[in-house]
């Protein structure tokens, strides 16, 4: 890991918001050819940092306010990063992304969305608490190659399943790959939902999507 990115991760773990923002801007300024590789290096470092923050929370060193602050800082980091390198990497395809109905968690969704954009995908991020009807409407309108649904709650598996059913009933399932992600997903839940793949890791999710559009 680059020293400047390592320092960024350290600032994040210490919840030093001002230093985090300054460090991100400095990395962008000091990297003449800022592209997918550096973008993903930053995101992965921040993922590690968020994991360390989670450990501190589990150990009683950090509490809910610190956890919420870290999420806010991470969101700001994502907001500062360039959004798309399609011109450099080539357009790979279109993905509709969203967190399903009754679930408002978005950190994981935002991470994978940023990494997908950095890889050359056009990402249509619908946000959180997205209904089955809204997912279907967007799939009909934009005709993506992939639908990516995110969830953090076990109860969110049911809306994922019903979203897939809506898409099947509309006759759009065969032309669409579906991936689900989040800490609650597994091979069993993937089969329950009727998705094509699942992932708990953003980088792996990007590789799965790239494999689909390249025919691997």
3D architecture notes:
Keywords: Cobalt, Metal-binding. Helices cover 57% and strands 12% of the residues. With 216 residues, it is α/β, with parallel strands linked by helices. It folds into two domains: 3-80, Methionine synthase domain (Methyltransferase, Methionine Synthase (B12-binding Domains), Chain A, domain 1, Orthogonal Bundle); 86-213, Rossmann fold. The chain has a five-stranded parallel β-sheet, sandwiched between helices. Strand 3, helix 8 (157-169) and strand 4 form a beta-alpha-beta unit. It is globular.
Count of helical segments?
10
Beta-strand level of the residues, as a percent range? 5-15%
Helix content: 55-70%
Terminal-residue CA separation: 29 Å
The top level CATH class name of the largest domain: Alpha Beta
Tell me the domain tally. Answer: 2
Count the beta strands. 5
Low-confidence stretches at least 5 residues in length (pLDDT < 50)? none
> What's the main sheet like?
5 strands, parallel
Estimated radius of gyration? 18 Å
CATH superfamily of the largest domain: Cobalamin-binding domain
The average pLDDT value, as a whole number, equals: 90
Give the topology string: H per helix, E per strand.
HHHHHEHEHEHEHEH
Q: How are the strands of the biggest sheet laid out side by side?
A: 2-1-3-4-5
CATH architecture of the largest domain: 3-Layer(aba) Sandwich
What is the global morphology?
A: globular
What is the fold-level CATH name, i.e. the topology of the largest domain? Rossmann fold
Helix vs. strand class: alpha/beta
């Amino acid at each position: 890991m680059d020293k400047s990115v390592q320092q960024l991760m350290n600032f994040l773990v210490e919840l030093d918001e001002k230093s985090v923002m300054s460090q991100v801007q400095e990395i962008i300024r000091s990297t003449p050819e800022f592209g997918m590789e550096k973008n993903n290096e930053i995101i992965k470092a921040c993922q590690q940092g968020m994991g360390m923050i989670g450990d501190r929370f589990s150990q009683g060193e950090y509490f809910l306010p610190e956890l919420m602050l870290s999420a806010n800082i991470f969101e700001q980091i994502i907001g500062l990063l360039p959004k798309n390198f399609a011109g450099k990497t080539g357009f790979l395809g279109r993905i509709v992304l969203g967190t399903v109905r009754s679930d408002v968690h978005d950190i994981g969704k935002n991470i994978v969305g940023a990494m997908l954009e950095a890889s050359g995908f056009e990402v249509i991020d619908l946000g959180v608490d997205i209904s089955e009807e809204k997912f279907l409407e967007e799939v009909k309108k934009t005709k993506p190659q992939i639908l990516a649904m995110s969830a953090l709650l076990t109860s969110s598996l049911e809306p994922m399943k019903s979203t897939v059913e809506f898409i099947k009933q509309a006759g759009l399932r065969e032309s669409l790959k579906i991936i689900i992600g989040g800490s609650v997903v597994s091979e069993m839940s993937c089969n329950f939902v009727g998705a094509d793949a699942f992932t708990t890791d953003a980088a792996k999710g990007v590789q799965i999507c790239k494999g689909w559009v390249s025919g691997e």
